[in-house]
Amino acid sequence: MQTRTKPMSKVSLLTTNAIIAALYVALSLITPLAAGPIQFRISESLNHLVVFNRKLLWGVFAGCVLYNALFGMGIMDVLFGGGQTLLALSLTAVLQNKIKSPKVRLGLNSLFFTASMFMIAIMLHIVSAAPFWATYGTLALSEFAVMVVTAPIMYYLNQKLDFANRL
User: Where does the pLDDT of residue 16 fall: very low under 50, low under 70, confident under 90, or very high at 90 and above?
Assistant: First the structure.
């Protein structure tokens, strides 16, 4: 892989993150089960971008917040959904220099997102009186499925596109 000779400009980084945010919203809209106690958001695959380049955290976070604000359950979804995404992405970003293996980071990222779905279960319990443990179980299972299925795809895409240096 070729190494970037100069750092990404601020305009380029901002543009890339805006495109990722828009892509997150668009991918969320094509999935019929993108909200509620079972969520199969294809857009969640973009969470794995932070495994390869932590500067892309803000695009994924903005996409989640934007989708939740426009198509979710209002301010509660923005706060809880955005908070859950920011928490899990931040944990993954911190590991970028500590754990060198991208495969291990992909696995941990999948676990961070799966475990942190308790925040969405709390929100659904508050907003719609959904039973916490059953809701957490379906959310965690659906999130785990999406993250595990898309991890190898994102690993392959990174091999071809080199997210850390090409974007």
Answer: very high
Query: What does the alpha-carbon distance between residue 140 and residue 89 come to, in Å, rounded to a whole number?
Result: 16
- Model-level pTM? 0.90
Residue 14's alpha-carbon distances to 66, 94, 95, 96, 131, in angstroms, are 16, 21, 23, 21, 40
E-only strand ranges, 3-158: none
Among 110, 136, 133, 24, residue whose Cα is nearest residue 72: 24
Q: Can you say how many angstroms the Cα of residue 27 is from the centroid of all Cα atoms in its chain?
A: 12
Band (pLDDT 50/70/90 cuts) for residue 32 is: confident
Residue type, 43: S
Q: Hey, what's the torsion of the CAs at 140, 59, 92, 126, to 10 degrees?
A: -40
**Block residue for tokens 């973009």:** 46
Strand (E) or helix (H) holding 80: helix 75-95
pLDDT greater than 50 at residue 20: yes
The residues, ordered by sequence, that sit 6+ positions from 133 with a Cβ below 8 Å of its Cβ are 121
For residue 155, what are the contacts with CB-CB under 8 A and spacing of at least 6?
48, 102, 103, 106
